[in-house]
């Protein structure tokens, strides 16, 4: 029997590492969904122990030797080596004790944040957040090698992404978004929902919509959590959503959004299972899937007509006269504080706020103790009114508590990518609206699976979008889509 090649040995080793990483991910899923409240301390130790094991595997010098010797059998193999090399070179820069300390701290910090958010008590969270920022600065310094600290963190979520590029893009988008928001807010407003919607019925409809959009529930599940998220890859991809009896759209569109993430992971070619290429290539591309599912498809006039009928079937007459009114209600531009509840026009303004604060934190231009005041000042400048309580302001997102600095700009990048994909999708499926009006998503989601999802991490992020659309990504399609849609809705 012939001995395994260096490539084969490396891939076998990587498969075990990927399997362990998936187990670690389920620890986090469990913590957000069903873990007993009193288990947080032990879970922090478990998470730290898992991270120690994973860090040791990812920094094993044998990986470097295999990489030197490995001869990829094909283009897929070359992509796997590129991803392994990138992970290895980043991992060896971070000391093992720092990686473990971060895992323990962020597991503990998550519970502290949740308690502070529930109590509207910023002071209860800031000392822990200061610890997280301190360790993330140490990690960024190790990764950056003298370069920009924030870019080093962004690279974890959007490989080769640069804050300066994001800032330039956001600067171009911002005036148009602000002007469009003002026109929309000054237009006649549709009356908000006033009925009550049973939470269990919302969950049932959410499950139906998940399957309509292609989510395979034999390889997934839907649970409730404070902050909706998607977790896992391959054959075990789970999502969460949330319910509010006065706002069914929160549940339904959070579900569709997370289904976009989940379908990306489920749609990756099975040959990449438990390999570096067997997961989404970047959070920007990931977010492009969740946003196009939620917005360009789920909030389209055609699909809203279908959803209106299903809601009347399940909830009866809930005070909305017709499909056009329902469409306007689903896409209502309105004042609010919460990013995840923001309309398409204002959502990116929320991201720009967080992006600028994060850059300031890691440039040492802003200290954690001044973060709430900086947030409130920026919110007032951007949105024209004051934050009413910390849970609607600086405490609203889970990301900072778990150390996800550099993640936020990928949300807007995902919107930009979604705009490009939607433009290409419309060219390929000229009868898309007819299909959406019947609740038929298979052609649209099948196109996305073929052109984006199945590739997993095989290509670089921008390359994925360029190959799918035929041109390099820009913000122009997104801004054109928003102007057309919300200009019409506001009568402008």
From TrEMBL:
Q: Which domain of life is it from?
A: Bacteria
Q: What does it catalyze?
A: Release of a C-terminal amino acid with broad specificity, except for -Pro
Q: Name one Pfam family in it.
A: Peptidase_M32
What are the GO MF terms of this UniProt record?
metal ion binding; metallocarboxypeptidase activity
Query: Which GO biological process categories is it annotated with?
Result: proteolysis
Q: Does the keyword Nucleotidyltransferase apply?
A: no
Q: Which residues form the active site?
A: 258 (proton donor/acceptor)
Chain positions recorded as Zn(2+) binding sites: 257, 261, 287
Q: Does the keyword Protease apply?
A: yes
Record key words, sorted: Carboxypeptidase, Hydrolase, Metal-binding, Metalloprotease, Protease, Zinc
Give the EC number(s) listed in the UniProt record.
3.4.17.19
Cofactor needs: Zn(2+)
User: What is the UniProt remark on how the cofactor binds and its stoichiometry?
Assistant: Binds 1 zinc ion per subunit.
Which PANTHER family does the record match to this protein? CARBOXYPEPTIDASE 1 (PTHR34217:SF1), METAL-DEPENDENT CARBOXYPEPTIDASE (PTHR34217)
Q: What does this protein do?
A: Broad specificity carboxypetidase that releases amino acids sequentially from the C-terminus, including neutral, aromatic, polar and basic residues.
Q: Which family does it belong to?
A: Belongs to the peptidase M32 family.
Q: Identify this protein by name.
A: Metal-dependent carboxypeptidase
Which organism does this record belong to? Roseovarius atlanticus
